[in-house]
Specification:
alpha/beta; about 45% helix; globular
Length: about 280
Amino acid sequence: MDAHTNAFREFELAGWNDAGISKRYDADLGSVTAQSVPALLDAAVVRPGARVLDVATGAGHAAAAAARLGAEATGIDFSAVQIRLAHERHPGVRFEVADAAALPFDAQRFDAVVSSFGMLHFPDPDAAAREAFRVLKPGGRLAFTVWDAPDRTVALGALLGAIRRHGTLDVGLPAGPGFFQFSEPAACERLLRGAGFEALVIAQVTQVWRVPSPDAAFDTLLHATVRTRAMLLAQTHEAIERIRAAMHEALAPYRRDDGYELPMPAVLASAARPATD
């Protein structure tokens, strides 16, 4: 791991080892990311009795959903805080601290590997894809979800647009993989084929974030994320207020009688390790 990659990893790890951030992400955004978990498990062909690895498990919801289907599920995350949270949420499921780029499992151990919104956080996505390939049995499938492009992921697109107009995106964060790079099918294909996968399927999954107000969405992105939080905290007080006001304007079309319904679709990519190598 080079110095730049390591700096990004340590930045992400410090963020997700903050119990306040991890718990609030689960409380405020977990209801959104959970909406694509059934499609994620379907894409990985998770069945009763299958051995399933959930990489970057966070609070453990995908691993727990696999277990409810009758699979033998294991969830891993590089954050010890996230693993404690997963144990609290799902005490009957196996969880352990491990790194996506160096999985502590024998080759060809699992029938399926899944990652719910983890790929966009990995310092080295190619290494993570190669490790998923290594631990999969021949014919096993990898499936992962990421956020769709910002022009379709309304809350994130509104915030980034507001920062561009009223603040700055150049705040000196450690260089890492592009947050939306895997929103593009071509990037998913390069990643998966480069790791040796075949039979690729890439689709969009509808998700909706229901919030009581634009302020609620803004505050979640400020307090329950890592990269976005750091970007916002680097703005001036005046810029923050202008960004918040711009969010109100951008989200106004999504007002409903009882709050706001914000489209937050996911891109779901899946592929198979060849049945014969």
